[in-house]
Design brief:
single chain; elongated; Arc Repressor Mutant, subunit A; 2 domains; Tetracycline Repressor, domain 2; about 210 residues
């Protein structure tokens, strides 16, 4: 599982996690079952009863770990998406391409767009789910800020560029994938990256 990805836990193999003294196989199983149900059915149709039945545990076992269904959903969705850590590729455009390819690649996984759309819809009336949605957005915004700051330091990005505007543009690309219910092709991503690079580059000086 990737660490770079909208709610994931730090990358580790099952063996690594099993050796972690804090690892609880029952809790992990419940979370993975919940994630599968969310990807298949969306938030509204996932109940505590359904989670218990699919995980083959009692509701009492579930409430031993979480006080509400919302808490299970928040923890389960973090298995899918987490912080984005763009590497230093020496180019603003290459790093933005990496971010978009990473995030939109996640959305190509079966059920992920349904999962994200469900969280977005439920977050309008649920503060706990709103918090995890805001967390996704912040992960993306933080990654863009990082690559812009590196680009400014390298001299290939205009130091006066409006970073918030760039964050908004990139987040808009990701949001459109959710609205459309599908990801973008690599060619479309390349074209978007070129537009963002042109908008953020240091203005040419003539005369």
């Amino acid at each position: 599982m990737s660490t770079d990805d909208p709610m994931a836990t730090p990358e580790s193999t099952d063996g690594d996690r099993a050796e972690d003294p804090g690892f609880d196989p029952v809790r992990e199983s419940i979370l993975r079952v919940t994630l599968g149900l969310l990807e298949e059915n969306g938030c509204l149709d996932v109940t505590t009863e359904a989670i218990a039945a699919a995980a083959r545990v009692s509701k009492a076992t579930i409430y031993r770990y979480w006080r509400s269904k919302q808490q299970i959903i928040v923890d389960a969705t973090r298995l899918r998406f987490g912080p984005i850590e763009p590497p230093d590729l020496g180019s603003f455009e290459e790093e933005v391409r990496w971010i978009l390819t990473k995030r939109l690649g996640d959305y190509r996984q079966t059920g992920t767009i349904r999962l994200v759309a469900g969280i977005i819809g439920a977050s309008t009336s649920d503060d706990e789910l709103r918090a995890v949605f805001d967390e996704w957005i912040e992960y993306l915004s933080r990654a863009i800020r990082r690559v812009v700051q590196r680009g400014i330091a390298r001299g290939d990005i205009d130091p006066d560029v409006d970073i918030f505007s760039l964050e908004t543009l990139v987040a808009g690309v990701v949001s459109r994938a959710v609205v459309m219910g599908r990801s973008f092709s690599d060619a479309t991503i390349d074209h978007i990256v070129g537009l963002l690079g042109a908008a953020a580059s240091v203005p040419s000086r003539t005369g």
